[in-house]
C-alpha cells in the first residue's frame, strides 16, 4: 500500500492555514489516503508512533478545526482523494459517499436522479461531506430540512483505537442502544475519522420561488417570519436576514454583484449605513412552480398589508433568483476583502432575538464607538452571524495591506472583551455561542467558559473513552 504523502514545506503551505486566514500551523507531513484501508493504515501507524492526527476535508471550516498546530509534530490527514460515490439506492432515497466527496458532487448526483440533497452553503464546491458531518454544518436550508446531522443515516469511521466501524446503514429508525453515529457527527475530528456516510435524499421540488424583501427593523423581520411560516408551512425553505452593514462591503468591493440593490436608492455614496434590513425568502413546492410562487406572494401581500414589509420583489427568472442568492452569499467574501473581523456565530430562541439585537447595538456602540455590527444569517433558525468589524473611519483610504493590518489589530485588541460582551448576552437568553460553525480552536475556550462542569465532564469522559491517547485533533473542541 503506497499512500500519497506530502512533506515538502512549500507544497504543504495551502493546507496549513484556515479559510479565514486566522490560524496557521505546520504539520510533520500531509497524507492523502484514497481508501478507507489507507486511512486505517495511517491511523495505525500514527498510533504506533504516537503522532497526533488532524483531519481535513476541503479546508473551508470557519473555526480553525482542520488546521494543525505549529509544532511540526502532527500529521494532517487530508481526505480530498477519498471521494467516491459508493452507491445510490433510489428506492430507499439514500446515497453512500466517501468523506472527501464535495457537497456539490453529492448535490449533482442527487439532481441527476430527480432527487435533492438539501444541505446547502456557499462553500459547496470545496466543502466535503466528511467535514460537513464532522462539524454538523448548517447552511441556508436548515429551516426546512435540518442540519447535516439530520440528513445522515449511517457512518463508516476509522476509530481512534485503530479499528474500522462500519455503520453504513440506510435506516431511518434504529433504536439499538447508544447512537454512535450522533456521537461522531459534530465531534470535529476529535474522536476518530469519518470515512464514509449514508445520506438521505429528498424529492426534488417542482417549483421554487425566491423573494428579496426590505423590512424596517429586525422585529418586523421576525413578525414576517412568523407570518410566512403560517402561510407557507413546509413550503418555506429559506429565511435569511441581512443587515445594511453586512451588505455594505458587498456594494463597496463587488459592486457588480449588487443584484437586487442595483437601483437608484442604493447606489448613492454610502448607501447602507442604517436600515432597511433585507430578507431573502425561498419557497419550494412539490406540486408546481405556481404553487411555490402563489404561496410566497400571498404571504408577502399579507406582510405588506400588515406593514411588516417595506418593499418586496419575487424573482421572475432563475437568473434573477441566483442574483438574489449571490448577493447573500457574497457577504462573507466581501467581509474578507474588508479585513479581519471578530466572527461570532450565535443561536438564540427566536423570541429573544429582537431584544438581544437592541441591547447589543447600544452596548457595542458604548464599548467601542463606531464599531460595525455585520449582522446576517439564518433568522429562520435563530442563527445570526453577529460579526464585528473595525470602525469604518479606521480603515477608510488605506491600501489593502494596511487596511488588513489595521483590522487585524482591531481584532487582537478588542476580541476578548467584545466577544465576551455578546456571548454573555447570548447565554443569559438561553442561546449558544456556536450555532453552526463548531468550536474548533476559535471557540474552544469560550465553550469551556460557559459550559457547566457537568457538561464538560461528560464531554471529557467521551473523549477519554474513545481517544484515550488524545491523538485526534488535540487542542480543538475540548
Ligand atoms: C454563511 O451563512 O454565509 C456562512 O455561515 C458563512 C459565514 O458566517 O461567514
Ligand atoms: Zn451561516
What are the defining features of this structure?
single chain; 478 residues; alpha+beta; 7-stranded antiparallel β-sheet; 5-stranded antiparallel β-sheet; 18 strands; binds D-malate; binds zinc ion
What does this structure look like?
- This protein has 478 residues and is of the alpha+beta class.
- The chain has 16 helices and 18 strands.
- The chain has helices spanning 9-12, 36-49, 103-112, 129-134, 142-145, 148-151, 180-184, 218-232, 244-253, 289-305, 318-338, 350-367, 392-395, 400-428, 444-450, 453-466; strands at 4-6, 29-32, 53-56, 75-78, 85-89, 94-98, 115-116, 152-159, 164-167, 192-200, 202-203, 207-215, 236-242, 277-285, 311-314, 346-347, 372-378, 383-389.
- Strands 15-12-14-13-17-18-16 form a seven-stranded antiparallel β-sheet, with helices on both faces.
- α8 packs across α10 (289-305) and α12 (350-367) crosses α14.
- The relative contact order is 0.12.
- The mean pLDDT is 96.
- The structure holds D-malate and zinc ion.
- Residues 138, 377-378, 385, 436 line the site of zinc ion.
- Zinc ion (ZN) binds next to β17.
Amino acid at each position: 500500500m503506497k499512500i500519497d504523502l506530502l512533506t515538502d514545506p512549500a507544497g504543504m503551505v495551502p493546507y496549513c492555514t484556515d479559510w479565514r486566514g486566522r490560524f496557521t500551523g505546520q504539520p510533520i507531513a500531509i497524507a492523502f489516503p484514497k481508501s478507507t484501508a489507507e486511512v486505517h493504515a495511517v491511523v495505525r501507524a500514527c498510533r504506533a508512533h504516537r503522532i497526533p492526527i488532524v483531519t481535513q476535508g476541503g479546508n473551508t471550516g470557519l473555526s480553525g478545526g482542520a488546521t494543525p498546530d505549529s509544532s511540526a509534530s502532527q500529521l494532517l490527514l487530508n481526505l480530498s482523494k477519498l471521494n467516491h460515490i459508493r452507491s445510490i439506492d433510489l428506492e430507499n432515497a439514500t446515497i453512500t459517499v466517501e468523506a472527501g466527496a464535495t457537497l456539490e458532487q453529492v448535490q449533482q448526483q442527487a439532481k441527476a436522479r430527480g432527487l435533492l440533497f438539501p444541505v446547502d452553503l456557499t462553500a459547496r464546491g470545496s466543502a466535503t461531506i466528511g467535514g460537513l458531518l464532522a462539524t454538523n454544518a448548517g447552511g441556508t436550508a436548515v429551516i426546512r430540512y435540518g442540519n447535516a446531522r439530520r440528513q445522515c443515516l449511517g457512518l463508516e469511521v476509522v476509530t481512534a483505537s485503530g479499528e474500522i466501524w462500519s455503520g453504513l446503514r440506510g435506516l431511518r429508525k434504529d433504536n439499538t442502544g447508544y447512537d454512535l453515529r450522533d456521537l461522531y457527527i459534530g465531534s470535529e475530528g476529535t474522536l476518530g475519522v469519518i470515512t464514509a456516510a449514508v445520506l438521505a435524499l429528498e424529492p426534488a421540488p417542482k417549483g421554487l420561488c425566491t423573494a428579496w424583501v426590505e423590512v424596517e427593523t429586525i422585529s418586523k423581520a421576525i413578525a414576517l417570519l412568523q407570518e410566512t411560516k403560517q402561510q407557507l408551512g413546509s413550503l418555506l425553505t429559506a429565511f435569511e436576514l441581512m443587515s445594511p452593514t453586512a451588505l455594505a462591503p458587498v456594494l463597496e468591493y463587488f459592486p457588480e454583484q449588487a443584484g437586487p440593490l442595483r437601483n437608484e436608492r442604493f447606489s448613492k455614496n454610502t448607501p447602507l449605513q442604517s436600515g432597511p434590513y433585507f430578507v431573502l425568502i425561498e419557497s419550494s413546492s412539490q406540486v408546481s412552480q405556481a404553487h411555490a410562487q402563489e404561496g410566497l406572494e400571498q404571504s408577502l401581500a399579507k406582510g405588506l398589508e400588515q406593514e411588516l414589509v417595506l418593499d418586496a420583489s419575487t424573482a421572475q427568472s432563475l437568473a434573477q433568483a441566483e442574483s438574489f442568492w449571490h448577493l447573500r452569499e457574497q457577504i462573507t467574501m466581501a467581509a474578507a476583502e474588508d479585513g479581519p473581523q471578530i466572527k461570532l456565530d450565535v443561536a438564540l430562541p427566536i423570541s429573544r432575538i429582537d431584544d438581544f439585537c437592541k441591547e447589543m447595538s447600544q452596548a457595542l456602540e458604548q464599548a467601542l464607538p463606531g464599531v460595525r455590527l455585520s449582522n446576517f444569517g439564518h433568522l429562520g433558525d435563530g442563527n445570526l452571524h453577529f460579526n464585528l468589524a473595525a470602525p469604518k473611519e479606521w480603515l477608510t483610504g488605506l491600501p489593502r495591506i494596511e487596511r488588513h493590518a489595521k483590522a487585524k489589530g482591531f481584532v487582537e485588541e478588542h476580541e476578548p472583551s467584545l466577544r465576551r460582551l455578546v456571548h454573555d448576552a447570548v447565554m443569559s437568553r438561553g442561546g449558544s455561542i456556536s450555532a453552526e460553525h463548531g468550536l474548533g480552536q476559535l471557540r474552544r475556550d469560550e465553550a469551556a467558559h460557559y459550559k457547566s462542569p457537568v457538561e464538560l465532564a461528560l464531554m471529557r469522559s467521551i473523549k477519554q473513552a474513545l481517544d484515550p491517547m488524545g491523538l485526534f485533533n488535540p487542542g480543538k473542541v475540548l
